[in-house]
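User: I'm putting together a teaching handout on how multi-component assemblies are represented. Below are the sequence lines for each component of a complex, exactly as they appear in our records. Could you produce the 3D structure of the whole assembly as structure tokens, so the students can see both representations side by side? Please keep the chain order the same as the input.
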Amino acid sequence: MVFHVLTLFPEMIREGMNYSIMKRAMEAGALHLNPVNIRDYTIDKHNKVDDYPYGGGAGMLMQAQPVYDAYKAVEATCSKRPRVIFLTPQGKTFNQSMAREFAAEEELVFLCGHYEGIDERVLEEIVTDEVSIGDYVLTGGELPAMVMMDTIARLIPGVLNNEDSAQDESFAGNLLEYPQYTRPEVWMDKLVPAVLLSGHHANIEKWRLEKSIERTRNKRPDLYQKYEEETARDRSKKLK
Ligand code: ADE
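Assistant: Of course. Below is the structure of the complete assembly, with chains in the same order as your input.
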């Protein structure tokens, strides 16, 4: 998987992604990160990439030309037209199923805006997907792009150590993850649930599923409703 990131702050991307599992995945070659500095593509003699908005208003806008040329340089290296994700609070809200869909691509381009935004004309020309990471406003698209890359990358084979760990976790099948415990067996007078020490795998699985269901119902009633609807649908499919 290759992540191309069009940004005015390539170091922020390089640095932010260079830890822990993402760093290991890049070293192992499962992941390639290509931060592209939009400023390198300006034709302005003062290296300017922004200007005032027509019609007036607060702040500056990123100009179309450097963004477009940076994108074209990336596109020229791709075997097909890549999906171009523009990070914006106006986009579709990111979730785990979108992450799964993006993880099936071989290359993705993230376009990070800064200042008050980007000239609409270049967005019309190159963007295929508009994505928000939630209903709040950040100062730029770099953090949202990193949130998305982290989420997508861990779904790619070879990124996590244990292939199972991306399956058996929160949001798999619309359920939150069950509670987990490690040593010691007793801490602050609290015991690890006995079933987990029993070695009885079927009982452990059953207990975990029950806890997942209970947690989802209590903490995320919206998600629990989806879970119920989907299990009802699966059941009626089986009966047919
Ligand atoms: N840029 C600024 N705020 C954002 C958000 N919530 N999601 C994605 N991109 C953004």
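A couple of points students might notice: The pocket of adenine is lined by residues 87-89, 132-134, 136-138, 141, 144 (CB under 6 Å). Helices lie at 10-16, 20-27, 64-75, 96-103, 120-126, 142-153, 201-219, 221-239.
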